[in-house]
Amino acid sequence: MVGAWAVSTLLCYDRCGAAKLDTHSYPSHSVSETAGVDGPTETGQPEATVVVDTVSKHYTVGNRVTALDAVSLSLAEGSYTAIMGPSGSGKSTLLNLIGGLDTPSSGTVTVDGQQVSSADEDERAAIRGTAIGFVFQTFNLMPRLTAIENVALPLVFDGWAEANRRERAAGLLADVGLADRTDHLPAELSGGQRQRVAIARALAPDPALILADEPTGNVDTDTGGDILDIFDELHAAGNTLLVVTHERHVAERADRIIHVEDGTVRATESLTGAK
User: Which of 2, 74, 99, 140 has its CB surrounded by the most CB atoms within 10 Å?
Assistant: First the structure.
């Protein structure tokens, strides 16, 4: 039953579309120009929630197009990473592969100890439904479901009893400041409130990874700041976050920025010392 939720997630992601990212000159934080590759974690360091190992992705549309070329990186457990890159850089392909929405032409992708790249569709659906929480730019809430029903939806497909999933959903809505909006439909909520519901939904199955695609793209500046504050709280609580954005101030909330260009990781910029 997990598969049905994951398939709906896939359809929502396809409708969302790829973010249009751009990069400019980088401030003088710590920037590695050596392809920005993070290998397996060393002894004593946090375990990797995500490991991308020498991943390439090719498409044939008339001619062969290389979207990613031998990319390797890892996301440590509890880390907060942003991805930036111009349109066509390969960052959306990278997100698709990490999110289990596509498979690489070569190389491996592992999320929460599960190899996504070699899994079949049902297995990838299960990983998407339990190990990964998606937050989309356009919210992608079910319009005929209330806020609490939207948040509880992943748990329906994961086999939770109704009372337990409603309790979980209500608690998550309270955590994002919507305890008084549980029975409202998406059309009765502001853009910022809808995104809060989407964040609560992403957290429902207690995923190993929160994957956010332009999470502030459809809200005003003040509301966007509130959303980023929630992400900061999630990070402080030990969650692993990967955010795609074209906005520098959004990326700078992370611990590091991975700059993607021409299908490769051009630089990894550490922000830890700059905060």
Answer: 99
Judge whether 86 and 134 are in contact, CB under 8 Å. no
Which range marks the domain in which residue 69 is found?
A: 2-274
CATH code of the domain containing 102: 3.40.50.300
Asked if 125 contacts 2 with a C-beta cutoff of 8 angstroms, the reply is yes
User: Are residues 73 and 38 in contact, defined by beta-carbon separation less than 8 angstroms?
Assistant: yes
Find the Cα–Cα–Cα–Cα dihedral 44, 75, 23, 107, rounded to 10°: 120
Number of domains in the chain: 1
* Cβ-proximal residues to 16 (8 Å cutoff; 6+ apart), any chain: 136, 137, 138, 140, 213
* pLDDT by residue, tens only, the chain of 275 residues: 334 444 445 344 333 333 322 323 334 344 444 344 444 444 456 789 999 999 999 998 888 999 999 999 999 999 999 999 888 898 889 988 999 999 999 999 999 999 999 999 999 999 998 899 999 888 999 999 999 999 999 998 888 999 999 999 999 999 999 999 999 999 999 999 999 999 999 999 999 999 998 898 888 888 899 999 999 999 999 999 999 888 899 999 999 999 999 999 999 999 876 65
| Element of type H or E holding 197 | helix 191-203
